[in-house]
Amino acid sequence: MAIHNLKVLIIFLVINFLVLKIYAKAKGPKFYFNPKTPFVAFFLYLICFPFFQEKTNIFRYQSVEENRKKISHPLGNPIVELLNTKNNYSSAYEKYFNDNYGLRDLFIRLKNQIDYSAFGVSDEIIIGKNHWLFYKNVVEREQFYLEQQTEAQFENIQNKILSLNQYFKKREVLFVVMPIPMKNSVYPEHYTNRTTNRPSPTKFERFITFLKSHPEVAFIDAPAILQQYKNQYQLFHKTDFHWNDTAAFLVSQETISSINKWTNRSVRWQYPLKTQNDTDFTGGQTNSLAILISPKENILRISNSPKSAIPDPITPLPFLYYFKSPVSSQNLFPKMLLIGNSYLLNFLNTGIFDHFSETLIIHSNDMQKIPTAVPKDVKIVIWEMIEVDLLKESLFKINY
User: Cys-Cys with 359: which of 5, 101, 353, 355 at CB 3.0–4.6 Å?
Assistant: First the structure.
């Protein structure tokens, strides 16, 4: 796009130069160049060019991603509708124009670039130390509302966990809770917004304490694992909401080790942690920055990809993915169901699914279908939940 825009700009300047030469030649030797002319011409270009860009899209740039649909062109013939004083066509067209005029998204990105580069601020993102990015709606809204959760609501969550554990126990299914902290909880040293300080302990920390106080509930202490390794590895992306494959790998290892203890089995973890540095990674949070030049970062990837990284295309509904372990050289755990959100996608690169004979994955938004949708041959259920999931009461309205 940059090369295309440069070509267009050069052609535009050449055309203007030629027009000026022709005009000077037509005026003859008495032609006087008024220094105000370029300013007048530039002003006219500013007025006319947005309309020209809207119709031709001659300059190309990435549009701004918005969580809404832009206003559509009002219906009817513009001339007829403008003459009709009984309607508000002019107001409707003004709203349409403000949402769709040429160069709008470019101007937005330019303004956001100045805010980000010169002042370190953004409308949707908190910019922390060393260019770590944090969603405002997560840390200023969701985590804030979580701390305002009533004790009755918090107790209901705890009771649902205990009840669900009892339900699966009666079905002879191992139920495992895997709570995962958010980026600013693991790396508070990079989070610089002091206006959203949370109480100590936080609701999420209290939830971990609750799980520790109920040994009958199997849970993976992901916060402790991430705290243990945070200085050895970078476990979250600077420019993305999610943890990375290395963090998921460390939690995967501990999961297999813990399930061995809970089931008195000896399934051996198959893969060593081999990482490689990848450059120029751009995370999803940069979309919310909406700037011209997105920040990039170096990230750790797992270099030894697991065997079952590609899900089976015959995945049955309502499940997202189905895996069948390709490993036949050792004993495996029985069929497993993983409940979770976008964080679980990092498990695709850790090899954890190779340690179960079969794996089904369902999104936590479909918790209403759990546990009745759990096949009878599933013997292990793992619920991966992130910190702010405790705010979503719908996840804990489970009928069984």
Answer: 353
